[in-house]
Design goal:
Blueprint: H1 2-24, E1 37-47, E2 53-60, H2 62-68, E3 82-89, H3 92-99, E4 106-108, E5 114-117, H4 119-124, H5 126-135, E6 144-148, H6 153-157, H7 167-181, H8 189-196, E7 204-212, E8 215-217, E9 221-225, E10 228-233, H9 235-244, E11 251-257, E12 260-278, E13 281-299, H10 307-335, H11 343-350, H12 352-358, H13 362-368, E14 371-381
Parallel strand pairs: 1-4, 1-5, 5-6, 6-7, 13-14
Antiparallel strand pairs: 1-2, 2-3, 7-8, 7-9, 9-10, 11-12, 12-13
Helix pairs in contact: 1-2, 1-7, 9-10, 10-13, 11-12
């Protein structure tokens, strides 16, 4: 999986670069020579102590993009894959233009893989942070957006990853992997823009932290309210959120087993949320999840040779996932008072008259409502063995 995503991500950078070449050679009025651009693959935004914007860009050398994609010629000498440069400015647009005083070519943003926001900037205003990226015609709306926790965007972009010659591609791959496992979320720029303009749902953005000298971790979520960062969800809370949002493609959920533990591979999950009304007022938040899983690993005692044992495991799996959903929901209600699930959208859709009078107070109303979380799990396969590897004594 990782190798496939690496090849795909590098291919996307190379394809975007080649398309840029075609545009640059098409004879348009704003024609630029190919040698006049810097291929930007990663962007970081931060706020300085003085209140200025700190812009950091990671630029890939075209030759390294080609060679790492498997198309380079063997006779060329080694080149540094990327370089990173930062610049302060009063605004993002101003910092980009002023950066040209320190870099030799125009910055080309259509190839950006990741946009990383600092915690300080995100707590001030998400809308202001993304304004330039909504307006500029070169920006790719499919770029990944992340919020850095306990580390600056500049530190992350300056890392020399052991996993990939282009660090921004490595970061993109980790986002894909954690999203696939449910402990993270792939948040593209277009998704964030839609959520910022959505009535009844607050935005969430993927989280990024350092996991070592040359490694990152993209598990967890940044929670927003009214355009400002208010807190975080940990990986388990994130998975609970993803289950409730019908956004789980696959996940490994560990549950307790007889004197050990068992890994359940969730391979199909469907979820629906809603708001139950009584006497014209919201009375309860509803979350219903149906999922199918296989036994992926069994480290413990006991045989899986009876229907009642499978049924007991299904109940444990249901309770484990129900607990993770409840953790995410309680945090959104009690700590952040932010409807990141979109229950307000359901009210807007099915109870428009109530929504008209309650929309400005919805987050407060959402925070006090009880929740009914229902999880129905079915275990389809237990594998080709009945007995666990660990023998009973």
């Amino acid at each position: 999986m990782t190798a496939g995503w690496r090849k795909k991500a590098k291919g996307m950078v190379l394809l975007a670069f080649l398309l840029a070449c075609l545009l640059l050679l098409s004879g348009c009025w704003n024609y630029k020579e190919l040698t006049d651009i810097n291929v930007v693959v990663g962007v970081g935004l931060d706020r300085t102590e003085e209140g200025k914007v700190l812009l950091t860009v990671q630029v890939a050398e075209p030759g390294s993009i080609q060679s790492t994609s498997g198309h380079g010629s063997g006779g060329e000498g080694p080149t540094k894959p990327v370089f990173v440069v930062s610049h302060e400015g009063e605004t993002i647009f101003g910092a980009i233009r002023e950066m040209l005083a320190t870099v030799d070519k125009k910055l080309f943003f259509s190839t950006v893989q990741v946009l990383i926001l600092s915690e300080r900037l995100a707590r001030e205003s998400l809308e202001e942070s993304l304004d330039f990226f909504q307006r500029d015609h070169e920006v790719d709306y499919l770029m990944n957006v992340l919020v850095a926790k306990d580390v600056s965007p500049a530190e992350i972009l300056a890392m020399e990853s052991d996993m990939d010659t282009i660090p921004a591609v490595y970061i993109s791959e980790t986002v894909e992997n954690t999203s696939y496992r449910g402990t993270g979320k792939k948040t593209m720029l277009i998704d964030v823009i839609k959520d910022m303009d959505c009535k009844g749902k607050q935005p969430v953005i993927g989280q990024i932290t350092k996991a070592g000298e040359n490694m990152v971790r993209t598990e967890g979520l940044a929670v927003f309210k009214e355009g400002k960062l208010v807190g975080w969800l940990d990986p388990y809370e994130t998975r609970g959120y993803q289950f409730a949002m019908n956004d789980i493609g696959s996940a490994i959920v560990n549950i307790p087993a007889e004197e050990g533990k068992m890994s359940m591979e969730v391979f199909r999950s469907k979820a629906k949320i809603g708001v139950e009304f009584e006497d014209g007022e919201p009375a309860c938040l509803m979350v219903k999840v149906r999922l199918e899983a296989n036994v992926g690993g069994h480290e413990g005692k006991g045989k899986l040779d009876a229907p009642e044992k499978i049924s007991a495991l299904e109940e444990i799996l249901e309770e484990t996932i129900r607990k993770e959903i409840a953790m995410a929901l309680e945090k959104a209600q009690d700590e952040y008072s932010s409807d990141i699930f979109g229950f307000g959208m359901e009210v807007h859709k099915y109870h428009p008259q109530y929504w008209k009078k309650a929309q400005d107070e919805w987050d407060r109303i959402f925070s006090r409502l009880p929740a009914d979380i229902q999880v129905d799990a079915k275990i389809r396969r237990t594998g080709i063995i009945i007995n666990p590897v660990i023998k009973e004594h």
